[in-house]
Fold these 2 entries.
Entry 1:
Amino acid sequence: MTPEFNLIQQYFTRPAAQADLGVGDDAALISVTPGQQMAISADMLVAGTHFFADADPYQLGWKSLAVNISDMAAMGAQPKWATLAIALPEINERWLAEFSRGFFACAEKFNVDLIGGDTTRGPLTISVQIMGEVAAGKALQRAGAKIGDEIWVSGCLGDAALALAHTLSKFNLPEAEFASCAKALHTPQPRVSLGLALLGLANSAIDVSDGLLADLGHILQCSKVGAEIHLTNIPKSSIVSNYFSINAVRQMALVGGDDYELCFTAPYKAHAEISRLGEYLDIPLSVIGQITGNTGLVVRGFNHEILDFKETGFDHFA
Ligand code: ADP
Ligand code: MG
């Protein structure tokens, strides 16, 4: 057997419970459930751009799948299948063992089968494609926000950006606080159960990967509406709260990326049901503002003043 085949066999071949044919042939075969639409998305992680080349391989494996699963959550889709295309500078058995352990830990937690991919030599690059199912015509989209909708955010924002700032020596956190924020940065937990539960309740949704202002901005642009949000209502961990008087930390909560929470909009009549949902799923859900008929996004500060954000999020080509 060739080293490449060996490697695939050893590290990336697991039984695929939800596929008719998984890894090992020229293509995988899957059957889509009648009445469901397929939701498909891909995300690429490049060493030096999305992660440090010496990043912990277990966490990298987890995150490369988790960020894709988060896109399924944002559509209200049930993630089911993934492919993994990976370029490796060399065959490093320890690295591969840890990477695949992290990848499959995430796959098992969210019931995703790895059904195929490609393996090649090259600068470390990880490209995952995720496929899921959602009831036909029911998917949550960016384009559905309506004037008067409340704007909700799950979990809390800013922890991942704070961990990154600490890692880059731009902010100094005590060890325990860093450890907690680093978990958010390296092993994000996509909100699949929430996305599924929001079908029929939310008018629009997106996952917060590039920063709240940028991602909410996508909803506004696609829905041709405006919004007003309030700094006071931004959900934050006790750690981000500790430093929220610092301007740079407020920026991290609003424009820092890598949160992988859901931002969604829903009519006020769904408010009570969404609140109950948050309790049932044990996910904090906060209303941060509302959709308006104006253009653009207005952020109001602690004294209701309009804040000016020059930098609204992460753009790879900015
Ligand atoms: P081919 O040359 O026909 O494209 P490959 O040798 O690249 O086939 O792949 C053999 C099998 O292994 C295929 O089923 C492919 O989908 C799978 N595969 C290759 N790389 C990976 C990977 N990194 N993760 C999962 N499956 C993989
Ligand atoms: Mg191939």
Entry 2:
Amino acid sequence: MKIAFFDSGIGGLSVLNDAYKALPNESYIYFADTDNVPYGIKSNDDIRELVFDAVNFLAQFQLKALVLACNTATSVVIKQLREQFDFPIIGMEPAVKPATANTTKKVLVCATERTLQEGKLDFLINNLNASERVEKCSLQDLVLYAENFDFHSPDILVYLNEIFGKIDWDNFDSIVLGCTHFIFFKPLFEEILPSHISILDGNLGTVNRLSSLIAPNLSNDQKSPTKFYQSKREVPYIYFDHYIRYLNEI
Ligand code: DGL
């Protein structure tokens, strides 16, 4: 049995790469909906239809679990997926809880436009009584830069400086990366943000949840190489390998 990872594109590779380390004997499938990325500017109905289509495709494999390695898809559709499919489905949660836990300063949650508009994020923030301390910021354009394997060009610097230049960082002490594509820009964030700002993401939380869910069912089989799909077309691992190598360098 395999563990499937789904994302609109390459962002979920950052979660898959953490799963490789935590659960090295498992076999994986990675599905990037390359034909339809970015999701963050789409309507809920469109996202729901695309994710259901992909998960129906993935369900033909014997799945031990599905990881929705996409904050946007998690925000819009995880509840309905869990009602429809009987394998465990693990989603992403922006790391607002750890970010707000040990500080009274503000937290900047960066995500796609859709994630920021969805009630799931507000629910999380309100549950933590943190609505006064959390500000939201769309970094939607980073998704397509990441799809083009561009993590450091002058255009990106202009884009980020324009957005971050308006923020009074003295009032903040962390940013939360609420989109899996943004993980690839961590070195750039570290370079341009003031040194007192911590950068948090939800990847480890998701992988820990996956590990505990499949703990009774760990693989003893011969591990098979990861199968990669771009919108239902199987592709060789070299389509994604440079991203994994990049993640291991940063
Ligand atoms: N990687 C995704 C996320 O975590 C989606 C980005 C997009 O397709 O807009 O939200």
